[in-house]
Amino acid sequence: MSATSEITLTIDDKEVKVAAGMTVLQAAQQAGIHIPTLCHHEKLEAFGGCRLCMVEVEARGWTSYVVSCLYPVAKDIVVRTRSQKVDKIRKVIVEELMAHAPDAPELVRLAEEYGADRERFERQESFCIVCGLCVRYCNEVKHENAVGFIDNGAKREISFIPEVAKKVCWECQECFALCPTSYAQAAYLLTEALAFPGQRKEPSRPAKGTQAGRRVIPIMPIMTA
Amino acid sequence: MPKLQSAAELEKFRAEILSSRDPARPCIAVCAGAACDGMDSAAVAAAFLAALDQQQLGDRLEVRTTGCHGYCEKGPNVVVTPGEICYFEVQPADVAEIIAATLKGEVVDRLVYQDPNTGAKAVHMHEVPFYKHQMRLLMGDNPKIDPMRIDDYLAVGGYSALVKALTQMSQDQVLDEVKKANLRGRGGGGFPAGSKWETTKKAPSMPKYVIVNGHEGESAAFMDRAMLTGNPHKVLEGLIIGAYAIGAQKGFMYTRHDMPLLEKHVRNALVQAKEYGLLGENILGSGFDFECELHFDVGIFVSGESSALMRSIEGNPPEPRPKYIRTSVSGIWDKPSNLNNVETWANVPQIISKGAEWFTSIGSEKSKGTKLISLSGNVVNSGIVEVPMGTPLRTLAFDIGGGVRDGKTLKAIHFGGAMGGSIPADLIDAPLDFDGMSKLGAPIGAGGLLLMDEDTDMVEVARYLLDFLVNESCGKCAPCREGMPQMLHILTNMTEGKGKSGDLERLEDLAEVTGLGSLCALGKTSADPLKSMFRYFKPEYEARIPGGSEAK
Amino acid sequence: MTDNSIDGIIEKYRGQPGSLIHALVEIQHQNRWLPRAVMHRVADALEVPFAQVMQIASFYKAFSLTPKGRHEVHVCTGMTCHLRGAPKLQARVEELTGLKDGETDADSRFTFETGACLGSCSIGPELIVDGKHYGRMTPEKVADVLKRYE
Fold first, then answer.
1. Which of A52, A108, B134, B455 falls 20 to 30 Å from B399 in CA-CA distance?
2. In chain A, where are the structural domains located?
3. Residue B114 pLDDT > 70
4. Which residue in B209, B298, B319, B374 has the most chain C C-beta atoms within 10 A of its own C-beta, making it the best mutation to test that interface?
5. What does pTM read for this prediction?
6. Looking at domain C71-147, which CATH architecture does it have?
């Protein structure tokens, strides 16, 4: 294996040596330091959408806040994965996302850790948190593009394309398990019911890794109080 | 028209143009800028041309449709040379009188400028208060140029800077001159253009691209469109010079899809420049090749953000990339791409022609040259103004702008549109300066300056600006996509008398996190107007919360 | 002579995924809206996933996924127009047409839209119908303007 240049940086007061070209998130993971993520997935290109992985970076005398999933490691930078500002960013983002999906298990866990109040902001109608895992997975891994983003800004959400979904989704279902809020599965089922009821292409053989035939993931609501 | 294949041929051609034009022959310039056009200046121009034809005056008088003169409030604008006699609010019915007077060397008294307070009249442009206090280095040529005629631009010395750059200067010398001039970006960032050019130039991969950002999404900023529609060749000349310095072979002009006249003028300019050999292969025999394409946005503000714009040119949705992936190193199709605003490019020819030293003699210590300002809001004289950096805001608002309309008093001044801020009227003596205005919390942005009168509700202004941005967000990152609507919701409640305790604290948290956590400048600066409101106008906000300032 | 029909536009950009936006803009301009079947044809010809065409078409407000009316009525809601009274103008148009922003009436007479800023701030607030500017508008003048458009 050819020698790649090594970068030394500091993460949470710990000296970390990694190969050049890595992101701060990868470096932290390698050093066993945890940074929360939501829209990140090993099989997918880093997205930088949820912003939960933001960290504080001190480089050449400047302090900035960057997403560790995209920020490249550089010599002598000082990274802090927790600080008053970093924690506040995470807390408020969790509160904003809980306005969509207050019961999503991952958000509930993060809320507890960062002291987020699930009812702080006005409740939003859709429980899609636009992490893009389903869209990107279907595009980058499955190459089917059965689900995509539509609209912009606060109105952005995911949408299954009926013409494609009816041919490929039931056999696959892999994005359902990726969705932090179970919205992907709900969106697929609603699309099917409205656009192609009874016309989905059933798998020719049982899909791998399940019980006989696929079935929908049961959603257990979080019982609070 | 055979291609001009050398600097000498260009200068010979220019001399021919000039010798064929009689400077003593009167010219009537009718403004076809956006506001004048909206007031049907086309009918005025048509009336002039019809009269010219009918009375067979073609060899005694010239009529020219031009780009924006700047005094939009008083359109349709007409300027008669020689003498730069300014006529305002001209209607087709006035045409006969203007022609008759011009032929006799006289002035139509009732159409000239009259001071609304003193009644004093001003005939010539340099006497009219609106124009008197300006330094119109960029806009000054507009009344002399029909944007559809490249010869008009050549007649005022156009493309001589390009000749100088290509034939007398090396790429490095051109770059050095722009760096020494300390030309700072005019699109809102204020970043040193020379520095950006250098990064692009030094980036290892090829090919390289240069881009004109003519998107101008900032609300109430209209000078970039006026510049590009009124004098597209000046911008193009700056672009070609920049491409030469950087080593780029391809350029893109990026603008809005909803301006048919702008599209027509730019397309035509590109065709004419190509015809004349100012674009294409071996420009003027220098060995430098450069092509330029026109691209359009599709109606969303975020496509003005430089990395989003580049995605748009590629055919992708305009999603911005984080700033630590510098577009000067990795931009369009991951190639080094130098993007600058229309006004920034327009400054380049004069820097090359007259030198960096001349340029740095204008302006303040760290903000050099002039700035185009779109003056509007509750102002008497709205329009496009050009002043040296360092000019006090008071000059802009009162001497040029004529103060607040309808006899009201000034409450606040807003800069930078939805990503800027408002400052109170008592800061009116602050100088126009990138860093100074940023420190005050009202960054110049692209240069849209609004006067707000005593009846303005500052909570409603913040609400309105967020309402605008909420529709323009791309939706990729959570702090912007979620934070802005939540701030909007709280502010809307406050304006409807439904403010509740805890609102200000939630607004402050949202403002902080949206500012720190957003991916691009749109989200990052979306809360800046609100922050300026909290800094200067907090009591108005506290009054909307039951219990007032105690119950924050 | 270039073929400006939808077929012509699609053929012009066949095999060029990078020209997706150009193609859609030209079709929108020609046809005044983007029917789903046409978007599928664009996806096939330009070799892009339909999901991407859908994302672009729904992202940008210049595209219309529903047919537009014969006349486009636009109220500028830029900052200057806003300060000079655009909200009242907008309310009056909504009242007279029965339409909210983005809607088309059942007779396909008007499509109503708001948006910023067309750069003619000095003559705000403005009503623009089929590209024609009606500057320095007041709510009282709106009815007369709209009457001119069948």
1. B455
2. 6-81, 83-124, 133-195
3. yes
4. B298
5. 0.88
6. 3-Layer(aba) Sandwich (3.40)
